[in-house]
Specification:
- 2 copies of one chain form a homodimer.
- Chain A has 501 residues and is of the alpha/beta class.
- Chain A folds into 3 domains: 5-202, NAD(P)-binding Rossmann-like Domain (Rossmann fold, 3-Layer(aba) Sandwich); 210-296, N-(1-d-carboxylethyl)-l-norvaline Dehydrogenase, domain 2 (Orthogonal Bundle), CATH 1.10.1040.10; 343-485, Hotdog Thioesterase (Thiol Ester Dehydrase, Chain A), CATH 3.10.129.10.
- In chain A, 41% of the residues lie in helices and 17% in strands.
- Chain A is built from 17 helices and 14 strands.
- In chain A, the strands form 2 sheets. The first copy, chain A, has an 8-stranded mixed sheet with strand order 3-2-1-4-5-6-7-8, sandwiched between helices. In chain A, strands 9, 10, 11, 12, 13 and 14 form a 6-stranded antiparallel sheet that branches.
- In chain A, β2, α3 and β3 form a beta-alpha-beta unit.
- In chain A, α2 (30-41) packs across α3 (55-73) and α3 runs parallel beside α13.
- Chain A is globular and about 85 Å long.
- The first copy, chain A, starts with a helix and ends in a 16-residue tail after the last helix.
- The relative contact order of chain A is 0.08.
- Mean pLDDT of chain A is 86; it is low at 1-13.
- The interface between A and B is large, with 146 and 148 residues.
- β11 (400-411) of chain A pairs antiparallel with β11 of chain B, so a sheet runs across the interface.
Chain lengths: 501, 501
Amino acid sequence: MNKNSPMICETAEAMSERLPKAVALLGAGAIGGGWAARFVLNGVDVRLHDPAAGAVERVQEQVANARRAFRRLTLAPLPPEGSLTVADSIGAAVQGVELVQESAPERSELKQELLAAADHVTAPEVLICSSTSSLRPSLLQARMKHPERFLVAHPFYPVYMLPLVELCAGLRTAPEALVRAAEIFRAVGMHPLVVRKEIDGFIANRLQEALWREALWLVHDDVATEQEVDDAIRYSFGLRRAINGPFRIGGGGAGMRRYMQQWGPMLKWPWTKLADVPELTDVFLNKLAEQADARDEGLSIGKLEEQRDDRFVAVLQALRSQNYGAGETLARWEEGLRKRAPKLDSNSGPLRMRILQMSSDWVDYNGHITESRYLYILGLATDNLLAHIGIEGEYRSKHGSYYTVETHLAHLGELHAGDRVQVLTQILGADSKRLHLFHVLARDGDDAPAATGEQMLLHVAAGTGRSGPVQDPVHDRLIELTRLHADLPRPARAGGSIRLR
Amino acid sequence: MNKNSPMICETAEAMSERLPKAVALLGAGAIGGGWAARFVLNGVDVRLHDPAAGAVERVQEQVANARRAFRRLTLAPLPPEGSLTVADSIGAAVQGVELVQESAPERSELKQELLAAADHVTAPEVLICSSTSSLRPSLLQARMKHPERFLVAHPFYPVYMLPLVELCAGLRTAPEALVRAAEIFRAVGMHPLVVRKEIDGFIANRLQEALWREALWLVHDDVATEQEVDDAIRYSFGLRRAINGPFRIGGGGAGMRRYMQQWGPMLKWPWTKLADVPELTDVFLNKLAEQADARDEGLSIGKLEEQRDDRFVAVLQALRSQNYGAGETLARWEEGLRKRAPKLDSNSGPLRMRILQMSSDWVDYNGHITESRYLYILGLATDNLLAHIGIEGEYRSKHGSYYTVETHLAHLGELHAGDRVQVLTQILGADSKRLHLFHVLARDGDDAPAATGEQMLLHVAAGTGRSGPVQDPVHDRLIELTRLHADLPRPARAGGSIRLR
């Protein structure tokens, strides 16, 4: 138990981020593979050490799943992927890394031994973390020579989707190790939460398990099938749990007092005493397994994982639309990705959007990209320009943003699923409120445009719903870019109208 | 315990729905008010009986909240609202209703008395349900003369948002009462779940409480603040709980066995023994209240409720995009709303597209319908016109179809989720290959357009990828319609171009 914990919590929860160049992963099961996917897709080189047969292939599968999920999750510019290399010893894995993350099976002797070995061959300034979901860090660091750089960093499955990582210091952990770990995990899109006291199981798993134990009793006693227990959760308070735990009642302390007064006594009612552990007899295990089989829809594990990820993506995006909870973490990660992305080359020509691959679900019955998706892509290009001139989170909420008032779209060629396209955006003019753009959308490497789009945007002041002048520093950047673009040739289609003859 | 429960579960979970004309609500607190909102917005007349001062006003507030939330939640045509009337006696409230729903405070004597009184004055074929969150139906129906029409129908707060309603029969409940109740709750967008055995607290609350009890210990023991407990949940497994309970592991029975083998033993570890109840001492209650106060963002209860509902709406819509869980319930409810909505007919003048309700997942981060969806709607209007002149399956495959080559879109007003819009399409001109259209998109009943869209289409011959003349019989119909539309006034915006000055 570290006495400085509350202070550390605050420091660790500051917003600073630090993306490592390389990390070593010891153990490449479901958790290690998820770490690999998260790091690689964030542009971090991963050195993997796992003696088990087929470990790398399983990791590559997780990376492929994560790649698919990340494409759906965000439009922010993902960096070039980090490398994934296999090291045949711990010593080889830890060369030049900033973090060693251990994700071996949940057996304390095994972990102690592995961590002591890693400690022995790793330079003392390198962080070492364990993914343990239950074991105390003081126990795990017992045999290390440099235990001060060790802590628990417990993630959740699938690691590339769920943002929480619980950080827990042992008796001999240095406070700054927590801070440094938090910076790294934040940079790869996670939400580090410092556990104030060292306890077995940390926070989230104790809560999960309490629920699971009660759920097992309900099935054990035939009150419900396992499907019905799942339904009871996902159709009711489960919807709330993506948003909050049980403590967000509203009305501050007074609300909390009223709530505790109303519901607290129920904690002692007879029906809350089933907190013993049901015996995991063969009969009970058979019942669970049979119910699970009956629910199986005949889908492959791969397809089930895709479905699961699609659902996570949808819920995460929903929360992002509210800029709330895990959605806020996502938004912050995207901001980091945008900041770290190489700056677009804006001085020499039109603004260039990153390459975008046409999705197969954008196809209409003719097999072409459906017409409204062209406007969607132009919208992304406009967002890209707006981000470039500084219209992002803070500016948006304080000053406002641009809204499209007119678009003139010309289709000049067909696009198909899988085509890689790029949009070049040129500012044709701007005044205090209006912004006149011209987009050229072309296949990557193709000179002939597939479409052009001319747009007029209006600056709308935050919270008013009315037009208002663009504010600094955006105004300055816009003026500068407009001046640069004034030297570009004016597109022939600009100012055109639709006429039959 | 009803021996027929599994059979009833299946029957009750069939898809049939039955929307009642009127219901009586006894008790108008947080739960009764939520019932009122759900019923009224589904077009059901509500008779409210609650002797408490200010009850009606609080119910009206909930109805207003729900109205706002439903507008965001769905694009399906909501019916005209049911009436909300106050009855000064139980006898007056139950006149002509199909369901009496009791939502009095959670005290068994009070509920028994109220239910006996309701039973006495209500025709025996009318269903009577209790919203109790903990009391057994056999206990509640003890003093009723017609206990066979009584069951527990336990909803979740806020009742107008969360779809689950747990149905629990008592010893003397008739099986068909469960079926009828399920039909009614399904018709108002809920997911009825039949509890197979009569137990205190039913299913979801036992699970919620297990988690809450563990959460209280974590705060009690200073492992985490209440904020940190909430964070640990919403950034990790809470995201999963909107999607599934703890039993959806994947891989059927074999997956379940592996999972139980891996994690089952942990149920017995020392850290799972904190299942006693923490004493709710003043010191502990003060700590909870102080932490809750420290988190309070100074927002009014009304604002907090709005935020909460917006977050629920976002998560529900995310799940609907996956047609999954609570999202599937939402989709089914919308289908019912659409079926029950009155049909619209077409008339002369510009071609009138059927009324379309703006989908809540078409909303961008500003809360407006995202710009590409305007083009999507124009695409539907164009398809509507093409179908009207005979461009359908056979013509398409034999002769070809029209493709959009240019669109000039002007945004003149904002659209929001739930808005009902209509597009009027006018032919401005046509030649052997080209078709010049003008669309006006307006909210239903609104003269001012929300957008206009001018389009040029080109007839492309089947299988050639090249333009070719339109063929009969489409050609004839097109000529006829073009001639008719030539008499209509030419839209002022037709032929316009985008210019800064």
